Amino acid sequence: MRKLLTSFLLWTTLAWIAPATAQNLWSTTTFSSEFSQARLLVHAPQGVQAGQPLWLGLEIAHAPDWHSYWKNPGDSGLPTELQWQLSPGVEAGDIAWPTPRKFPLGELANYGYHGTVLLPVPMQVTPGFQGTQLEVKLTATWLICRQECVPEEARFQLSVPAQGATVTDARAFEAAWAAAPRATPAGDSRLSVDARGLHVRLAGLPAAWRGRALEFFPETPALVEPGGRWQQAWNGDTWTATLPLSGQRSASPDTIPLVVAPAQEGSAEPAGARLTVAVTGGWPALPAAPVAQASGASDALNAALAENAARAAALGTAPAGGGLGLWAALLGALVGGAILNLMPCVFPVLAIKVLAFTQHGEDHRGHRRSGLAYTAGVVLSFLALGGALLALRAAGEQLGWGFQLQNPAVVAGLAVLFTLIGLNLAGLFEFGHLLPSSLATLQAKNPTTDAFLTGILATAVASPCTAPFMGASLGLAIALPTAQALAVFAALGLGMALPYLAASWAPAIARALPRPGAWMETFRQLMAFPMFATVVWLLWVLGQQSGIDGVAALLMLLVALTWLIWALNRGGKVRTVLGTLAALAVATWLWTAGPHVLRVHEGTGNTTPTAVTGLAWEPWSPQREAELIAQGRRIFIDYTAAWCVTCQYNKRNALADAQFLQAVADRQVVLLRADWTRRDPAVTASLAQLGRNGVPVYVLHAPGKAPQLLSEVLSADEVRAAIQAL
Question: What pTM was computed for the model?
């Protein structure tokens, strides 16, 4: 009966996972975090009527010393993005960006906003709008940075009455319009380019600006070096400047929209001037096309990534490399999938399936049917996960392999599932005592269905990790056409199912197993302990996401659930009375403590000391990585997650090796740890730049060298040799 329990609970868990992963939860009109507060504002002085003004906007209040980004973020960062869902007949325009300011950081600089800023968006109401109110949904994403960066996302919704004025936030919109750069005719303004840089000559600027230093903000990114040295001067009423061209320039536009504004912070003139100026005389030849890179990466990193791409192409493993790259990915996926069977949370599931051989006896047809059904369950599950990943990424989500365990609801659901399986294996209850006999005999009548569902269960617990040979295959799969990418995911599933499939079709393996007997009950109870060990691991993962309160809440829920299962297996009034009390306890605890399980706990971001005095792991961020590379420092990055078993094995072995740590200290290598336990689009994007889509990933950066990728399962010798070779 344990297999029917597995099947039943698996479908229950998957029904929970799907809506949790979709993340379609909408807030009202406010958002708050440690780093910023955001509001969705509306200004409709004439209601929602065709031809009348209507504005919506996102207001962000930054924590002290933090900032977000303009449409051109500068050397690093990402602009704020707004995705609207509006009632039919209403269309959103572009953000009316306020005048930005410059945020210098060493030789780099960013463009953006601090304090409180409102990003207003004009709405066009057409005659096709019908109804008494405008329904608005907004998905907003912004990157907020200090010395480190945090990607934030919020979802808002509100209803705007179609009749009557909505002007509560009029002052905020008036301030935003006042801060918008004034449209200024180009007139005699000109731009020209030569080897020295971009030469700017602007006429018609406000008379009050004459003699003052200005800031220059091109709307086209990667044209000039935002933090580079540049010169400016006034010649009567004409402002001139020469700015260095960017080494990452990828465009040669005929005209450049730009904003200039007084450089002094707190100027009485809140708005800049916006001009669209023609470029005369043409552009120099473009530099060699750079490889896409993490925000703010230096020229050295860009060149190193380009070298990596060239090597991959030479080996036929680049995404555009064609057939050889695809066949290499399929082979790596097949081998990596087979290795997944050795993961400690997968092996108990496989062992239970192998135990079924003894129950089939000499029924070779039953063996083969079960093997094919198990394989189908695994392969289809990998295809479903791969398809969901590809679809979500195509929709703009920054996700990677194992994305489902970045959600506390999924982790908690799996912990409940494995607890109940463990209790069943240990003999606390039999499923036949909980359901009508017609359902309790379903597994015996449908062993093929049971094998199929067990394959789904095995995939659910195996997918979070990246086994050796899988990393490059997954990274390549994301960049392949959909059909080829799904073929890679299918190869992963086939590789994982292959050992059991081979055993089911090879009578010699079945004959080598012990004959049925009393040992089977002992083995069944023994398998409960790996299940409970898996629950401990899942609780630890949940602790990284929801904190100690989330773990305590889930543990109490598991206790109440165990009480309920025990009571339902009693007889007479004991079952009725205690079962009712236990059910009430489960429902009460779900209502009162359940939110603690699902609440994402923000980590402290503190450094983690090592056994070597003065050496510690620092939290990774794109900005920190770019800063260290710009300084010419050596960096070792550990891309990891609490739910990745391979990551934890490496962390406690190769990465804790005393000789490795001493070599790191001797060569002044900076240790960075990119934690992917919780959903982090910045980590996902960084992995994609390296051609990877899952963890673990280990990268060594050194000045003038290509980033060196180490193997997924590290040995102390390998990682020591990599450091000592610097």
Answer: 0.43
